[in-house]
Amino acid sequence: MFLGVFIVSIIIILVMVAQQKRQHSGLRYVQEHEIASFLKDGDVILRLGDRPWSTLLKNMSQKDKKFSHLGIIRIRDNIISVIHSEGLSTNRNDCVKEESLEDFLKIAQSIGIYRLLTDGVEKISDMALEYKGRPFDLKFDMDEEMNLYCTELLYVILKRLAPEIKLNTIWMKEIGKHIIPLDIYLQSEYFTEILYR
Question: Is the pLDDT of residue 195 over 50?
């Protein structure tokens, strides 16, 4: 228990330091107007964030290490939002949430847009919304769906929408569990890249 509290405390300190560095770094972030015309409801959006743990998360991928987080695009009445499960967020809202595309992009150094190549794409964002409010899965436990991490959210939706889609997992010895790294989706024959910026 003490170790967990210590690790969370260190991460919070790192977040605060990163926020201060970011304000003075001069990094260029992806803007909504640069990508909005490429988006369709149900697309998967991936980003490389500027947080200290973004590097750790992108390195969990086996081959393609461009991204650290993913979400699902929802478009209603010309308003674009992103449904995603975020942990270690600065506002301590660690759960499946829906936020504006603009807010999702605030820390995005690069993004990728991927589209599912199967029937039912139009249902993905509605299905994602059903999980809104579920806590972020800090244990990365794929055996239960009450808590979800970012790639797991899409995984449980795909299991319902298109059970014929088979996605590989990888064994992470550091946590002693199988996980779904981001590049599993990027390398899947069921997705196509629409944009990388």
Answer: yes
